[in-house]
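testing teh design pipeline on a random one, pls ignore if ur not involved
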């Protein structure tokens, strides 16, 4: 969807004006709310799909890196995606976003329906991507308590309007 106002920029480039195939090569990982895994593929194959599509030269290395960030994925790799719980599928969807996302992660309701242990694994992987890998992470989440654990800055939006945002330049603002 085209925005009605403002711009969407990454590294100075206007993403709205770029063609989708060009945007795809910019290191943007996306985790949709509904996971969108391919049920007939194994977890490993689901993680490889964006790497194959993007022509990445080192897919095995990327998978190892992601499993290092989300260790629970190691036991899921040979299993069909359809044989995982919803929470386990969410972890796979985050892993898939991390395989291709090197600059920016876009996460839509990543914590929805997760058991506390899986939410902790998800939160740790997100914090690591942000803090150690230097990625920008944009999370849309209705469960504020979980967002506060991974976010540097929180902007509250209700019915399409910003109702709570940090002051400009506030380094430690979370509300």
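output:
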């Amino acid at each position: 969807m085209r925005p009605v106002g403002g711009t969407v920029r990454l590294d100075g480039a206007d993403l709205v004006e770029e063609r989708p195939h060009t945007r795809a090569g910019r290191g943007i990982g996306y985790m949709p709310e509904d996971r969108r895994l391919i049920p007939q593929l194994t977890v490993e194959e689901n993680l490889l799909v964006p790497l194959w599509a993007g022509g990445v030269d080192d897919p095995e290395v990327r998978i190892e890196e992601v499993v290092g960030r989300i260790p629970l994925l190691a036991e899921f790799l040979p299993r069909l995606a359809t044989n995982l719980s919803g929470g386990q599928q969410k972890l796979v969807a985050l892993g898939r976003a991390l395989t291709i996302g090197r600059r920016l992660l876009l996460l839509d309701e990543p914590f929805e329906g997760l058991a506390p242990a899986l939410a902790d694994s998800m939160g740790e992987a997100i914090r690591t991507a942000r803090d150690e890998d230097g990625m920008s992470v944009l999370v849309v989440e209705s469960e504020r308590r979980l967002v506060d654990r991974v976010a540097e800055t929180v902007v509250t939006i209700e019915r399409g309007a910003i109702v709570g945002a940090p002051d400009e330049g506030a380094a430690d603002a979370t509300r």
